[in-house]
Amino acid sequence: MKTKIKKLLFEYTRNSRITTKELGKRIGSSQQSASYILNILKKKKMIESSTPIVDAVKFGFVNVLVGINFIKTDQEIEKEVIDELKTINSISGIEECKEGVDLLIDYITPNLSAFNKIHLEIIDRFSNKLRAVFVYPVIVNHEYFKNYLVRKYDYTDIILFGDRELVEISKDETRILSELIKNPEKKLIDIVEFSSIPIKSVINIKRYLEKRSIIRGYTSILNNIKLAINREIILLKFFGEGIREIDKFSDYSKYNKNIIKFQKLIGEYQVCIVVESLDEINIIKEIRENFPIDNYRIMKSEKIHKKIYLPIDE
Q1: Are residues 28 and 131 in the same domain?
Q2: Residue 118 pLDDT more than 90?
Q3: What is the predicted pLDDT for the residue at 74?
Q4: To pair with 43 at 20 to 30 A between CA atoms, which of 58, 64, 116, 176?
């Protein structure tokens, strides 16, 4: 992958609302060149979608990670199931894997009781097609930028689903937030035309949502296959006496250029990390050499079919 493309992907996943003028500056190119490369990457579906990073805990939601296997491997059945799962509002993420598990599903629901009801309904609906492998509520989620794409790293730590600080937002604020979730790259003037809210109010509401850390940023979803990006999701179980090492491991994750997500879980495994690289991934050996790992599960990603951070009512 060319250096300029790697820089552009880094900047665009760090802020998908960046202007092409600023994008050009950051990748050392003209606005026209940056715009051309960006459009080509979108046209070829190397950049598939964008989404605002919304901290759903602000609205009282919880996050649950679920592993799913197909009972019978059949491409038509798999596509049918994935397409239907994509329409379920409470499912915020669907990732297809080629090893370790067939699907990784992220739920965002008002509480665990609501999750349990929705999840059981799905399992019952697809009882002859799906089997749940594991269910892990997420305590906290740390997201990092794709530092493996560049030489100058940005170690920003975006923390989601941490301490609950609930907020209430107005009807207009809800409308603007919904529009940004549906189309994060939508120009504010277009939101004005759709919502009939004055431009000054739209600008102020967007700033307010960002200032209150409801919107933590704007990112994009990449087609890892087309970009030759290797991606693994690794579950880690620490030895009993090594629980105190989890905080040290959190620091290790933050400053490791290939780790783009660190989660604390409730269940058999206490930690989940997401690792990406342009080379073969061999991080588990290093982790086991430096931390007291009792057990681990590696899931090799194939494709991200859905990723949002907050369910929205259509």
Answers
A1: no
A2: yes
A3: 85
A4: 176
Same domain? For 263 and 184 the reply is no
Would residue 129 count as lying in a domain? Answer: yes
**pLDDT above 70 as % of the chain:** 99
Model pTM score? 0.93
**Rounded Cα gap, residues 105 and 65, in angstroms:** 6
Classify residue 51: in a domain, yes or no. Answer: no
> CA-CA distances (angstroms) from residue 171 to 57, 178, 267?
19, 11, 38
Residue with tokens 């269910």: 135
